[in-house]
């Protein structure tokens, strides 16, 4: 290695000419340390000879960049370690290299994080990985959306420029939503994905079946192209009708059908009492429903009235179809047909995808759990007061009683008491008789006696304690009856 001028003259002239042929890399590092004033630490694995020739004089900084290029060409790298530089194999430099500034030398091994605004980090890493040296690395980060690149600074800057260009997308990424009128969102999205593919920078599409909407994301140009394709696919008559069966968990199928009928502006013709209570329709088989039109006619001729009644009955039977036999009634509109299935408590819907999606949303809101009410009652039989009476009454005719050894009268029950009898006979002592048992013994042949007892009772019997559970705002009915042969 020769340097012009010599080291002693570098303070006056900074131009150095390098000419090395088959020089040990350790000796080269020693000379570079002297020329640049840097402290170099060689890894034991750093061995070999190098050959470098420079035709033009170099400054100390130029010599340092030349030395880094020589290391890079031989599979080594210089890694800063505090105030010193470590010369290590490139594989070790990837692990030991630090995060560099924008002003890092192109021959310096650096690690840099590149933040992205639009392109997903995984997609960016897939694009950048082939551009990184074999000893370098590219790792995607989800949060934040960025990639970490380890390589020589010049290559890192090249990769960063490429990713920035892709991330900008010629004006940035945008998104749009397109609601289909005739087509099915899932089918249209699948067709677009097959056409557009997964190319970087292309539009990304997804279908929302609930709102029958296509979501498009990409560059403005890609979104515009996707819009044109969606418009061509969503042509009238291009969407085949679809059929869906919605099984209900809580609501009644015919009741839900009547609500849908009312929402879509159709006339209610139901025979289900639950659905009729929601729609306000009267029983078509009742006299009011059958003859309601006849009352307005006001005909006075019985023959005309009978004929009109028969005609009205036939007309209503034709309109209701199977409703007279309790057949569940559906309805149709230009876009959709709805039919309840009471056996499985389901609603069958067939129509355009957009109409079916709208009805699906309504059914989901209607099929909700309703509060329940538990009603309990106690039915008891209570009898009135019962009385039992035993009486013995004897008396003699003749003179009035002049001496009473004891007296008794009955309780206030039905039948004449001894006191009443004596009072009717004009006996003076009748008023003195009190309640209880009375024995009247007279003088001589006069004799009377009364023995009377009374028992009263009342009875109650609990017959039943019925219970019934009904929905909130619905009438619950107890039926307590006895079958008599």
TrEMBL record:
Spans annotated as Disordered: 271-290, 317-337
Keyword Flavoprotein tagged: no
All copies of domain NolW-like, residue ranges: 111-167, 176-237, 243-372
InterPro entries: Bact_Secretion_Sys_Channel, GspD-like_N0, GspD/PilQ, NolW-like, NolW-like_sf
Gene Ontology BP annotations: protein secretion
Principal cellular location given in the protein's record: membrane
Compositional bias (Polar residues): 271-286, 328-337
Lineage, broadest ranks: Bacteria, Pseudomonadati, Pseudomonadota, Alphaproteobacteria, Sphingomonadales
Subcellular location: Membrane
Keywords: Membrane, Signal
Organism: Sphingomonas tagetis
Lyase keyword on record: no
Stored Pfam families: Secretin_N, type_II_gspD_N0
Residues of the GspD-like N0 domain: 18-84
UniProt protein name: Type II secretion system protein GspD
Comp. bias intervals (Low complexity): 317-327
Stretches of the chain forming a coiled coil according to its record: none
One Gene Ontology cellular component annotation held by this UniProt entry: type II protein secretion system complex
């Amino acid at each position: 290695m020769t340097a012009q001028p010599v080291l002693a003259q570098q303070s006056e002239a900074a131009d150095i000419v390098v000419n090395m042929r088959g020089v040990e890399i350790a000796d080269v590092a020693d000379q570079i340390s002297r020329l640049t004033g840097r402290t170099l630490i060689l890894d034991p694995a750093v061995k070999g000879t190098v050959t470098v020739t420079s035709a033009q004089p170099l400054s100390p900084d130029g010599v340092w960049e030349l030395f880094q290029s020589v290391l890079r060409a031989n599979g080594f790298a210089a890694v800063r370690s505090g105030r010193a530089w470590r010369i290590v194999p490139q594989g070790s430099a990837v692990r030991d290299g630090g995060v560099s500034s924008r002003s890092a030398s192109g021959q310096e091994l650096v690690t840099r994080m590149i933040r992205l605004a639009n392109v997903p980090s995984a997609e960016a890493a897939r694009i950048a990985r082939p551009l990184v040296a074999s000893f370098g690395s590219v790792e995607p980060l989800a949060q934040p959306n960025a990639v970490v690149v380890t390589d020589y600074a010049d290559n890192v800057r090249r990769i960063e420029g490429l990713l920035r260009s892709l991330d900008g997308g010629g004006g940035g990424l945008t998104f749009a939503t397109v609601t289909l009128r005739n087509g099915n969102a899932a089918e249209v999205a699948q067709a677009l994905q097959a056409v557009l593919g997964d190319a970087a920078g292309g539009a990304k599409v997804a279908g929302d079946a609930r709102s029958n909407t296509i979501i498009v994301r990409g560059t403005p140009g890609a979104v515009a192209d996707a819009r044109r394709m969606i418009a061509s696919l969503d042509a009238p008559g291009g969407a085949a009708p679809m059929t869906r069966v919605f099984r209900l968990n809580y609501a009644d199928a015919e009741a839900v059908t009547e609500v849908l009928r009312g929402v879509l502006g159709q006339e209610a013709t139901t025979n289900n009492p639950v659905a009729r209570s929601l729609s306000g329709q009267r029983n078509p088989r009742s006299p009011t429903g059958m003859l309601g039109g006849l009352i307005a006619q006001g005909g006075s001729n019985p023959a005309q009235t009978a004929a009109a009644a028969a005609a009205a009955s036939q007309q209503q039977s034709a309109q209701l179809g199977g409703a007279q036999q309790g057949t569940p009634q559906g309805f149709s509109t230009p876009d959709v047909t709805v039919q309840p299935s009471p056996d499985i408590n389901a609603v069958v819907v067939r129509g355009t995808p957009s109409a079916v999606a709208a009805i699906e949303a309504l059914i989901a809101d209607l099929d909700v759990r309703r509060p329940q009410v538990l009603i309990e009652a106690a039915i008891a039989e209570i009898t009135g007061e019962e009385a039992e009476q035993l009486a013995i009454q004897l008396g003699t005719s003749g003179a009035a009683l002049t001496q009473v050894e004891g007296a008794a009268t009955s309780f206030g029950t039905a039948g004449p008491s001894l006191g009443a009898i004596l009072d009717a006979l004009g006996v003076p002592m009748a008023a003195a008789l009190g309640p209880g048992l009375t024995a009247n013994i007279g003088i001589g042949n006069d004799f009377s006696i009364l023995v009377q007892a009374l028992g009263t009772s009342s009875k109650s019997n609990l017959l039943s304690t019925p219970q019934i559970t009904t929905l909130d705002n619905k009438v619950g009915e107890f039926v307590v009856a006895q079958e008599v042969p």
